[in-house]
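Dear H.,

Thanks for agreeing to be a second pair of eyes. The structure we're designing against is below in C-alpha cell form, covering all 251 positions.
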C-alpha cells in the first residue's frame, strides 16, 4: 500500500495531483481534514505575509475563511508549536497546556473556534527546513467522532508511516511550481525575460537574445512585477524562483 502511494506521489506532475493522492491516503488512517502550509518568507518573529504562503486544505470553506483568512491561525497553540519545533505532536498537548494553566486568552479563543467547527482531535507535523526563513507544517484533523485517545492509539500503530507520507508530500510540494500570492499567472514571455535577467543578462542583452527591443523587455519586466505583486525586479526574481516558476517544461 505504501509502495503504491510513493509511486503516485513521485509521478505527480502538479501540486493538485499530489494533494489529491495525499488526502485519500490520510483518510485511510482516519484523518479526513488536512491543512498544509509552507512559506519561504518567514522571519524570526513571524511566519511572514499569509499572502506569500502556500496553503493546501480540504477543510470546509467556513473554517478556512476564519482560520486562515481572518488570521485565527496566529492564535492557535499547535501553530505556535509547529513554528518553534520539528517533528510530530499529538493534540493532547493542548490539554496539557490547559492543565498547566499556561493557555493565553488568544489560544483559548482559537481552541473555542476549533471546538465549534468540530476540529477536536488530531496531530500536527512540523517539517525540517534548511533555510531559517522557510517553514512547513501540516495539521491532520481526525474524522468526526474520533477522540484524541483513539487518535493517539492510531498513531502508536501507524505514526511512523503517516509521518513519512507527510514528509514525502512536503518534499514533493516544495519542488513543484505554484503561484501563491500572484494577481495573475506569469505569461511565457514574462517568465522568459525574468529568467534571462536572473541569469545576469542586461536589458539590452535580453532584447538581443529574445529578438525584442529594450522597451518591450522593460514592459515585460514591469508586468511581471505586477503579476508577482512586488516592487523591484530583484524581488520578482526571488519570488518566481521560490515558487519554482523558472525553466518550466511547457505542456
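And this is the sequence the design step returned. I haven't edited it by hand at all.
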Amino acid at each position: 500500500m505504501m509502495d503504491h502511494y510513493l509511486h503516485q506521489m513521485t509521478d505527480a506532475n502538479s501540486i493538485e495531483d499530489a494533494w489529491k493522492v495525499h488526502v485519500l491516503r490520510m483518510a485511510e488512517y482516519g484523518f479526513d481534514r488536512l491543512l498544509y502550509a509552507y512559506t519561504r518568507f518567514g522571519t524570526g518573529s513571524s511566519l511572514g505575509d499569509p499572502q506569500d504562503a502556500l496553503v493546501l486544505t480540504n477543510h470546509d470553506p467556513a473554517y478556512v475563511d476564519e482560520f486562515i483568512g481572518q488570521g485565527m491561525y496566529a492564535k492557535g497553540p499547535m501553530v505556535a508549536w509547529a513554528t518553534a519545533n520539528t517533528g510530530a505532536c499529538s493534540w493532547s498537548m493542548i490539554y496539557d497546556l490547559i492543565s498547566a494553566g499556561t493557555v493565553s486568552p488568544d489560544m483559548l479563543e482559537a481552541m473555542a473556534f476549533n471546538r465549534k467547527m468540530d476540529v477536536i482531535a488530531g496531530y500536527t507535523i512540523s517539517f525540517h527546513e534548511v533555510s531559517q526563513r522557510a517553514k512547513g507544517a501540516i495539521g491532520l484533523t481526525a474524522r468526526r467522532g474520533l477522540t484524541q485517545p483513539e487518535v493517539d492509539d492510531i498513531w502508536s500503530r501507524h505514526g511512523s508511516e503517516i509521518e513519512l507520507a507527510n514528509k514525502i508530500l512536503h518534499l514533493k510540494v516544495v519542488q513543484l511550481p505554484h503561484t501563491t500570492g500572484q494577481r495573475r499567472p506569469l505569461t511565457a514571455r514574462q517568465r522568459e525575460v525574468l529568467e534571462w535577467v536572473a541569469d545576469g543578462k542586461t536589458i539590452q542583452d535580453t532584447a538581443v537574445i529574445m529578438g525584442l527591443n529594450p522597451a518591450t523587455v522593460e514592459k515585460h519586466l514591469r508586468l511581471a512585477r505586477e503579476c508577482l505583486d512586488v516592487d523591484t525586479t530583484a524581488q520578482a526574481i526571488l519570488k518566481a524562483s521560490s515558487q519554482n516558476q523558472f525553466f518550466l517544461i511547457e505542456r
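Two observations from my side: The chain has a mean pLDDT of 89. Residues 140 and 158 are 14 Å apart (CA to CA).

Warmly,
E.
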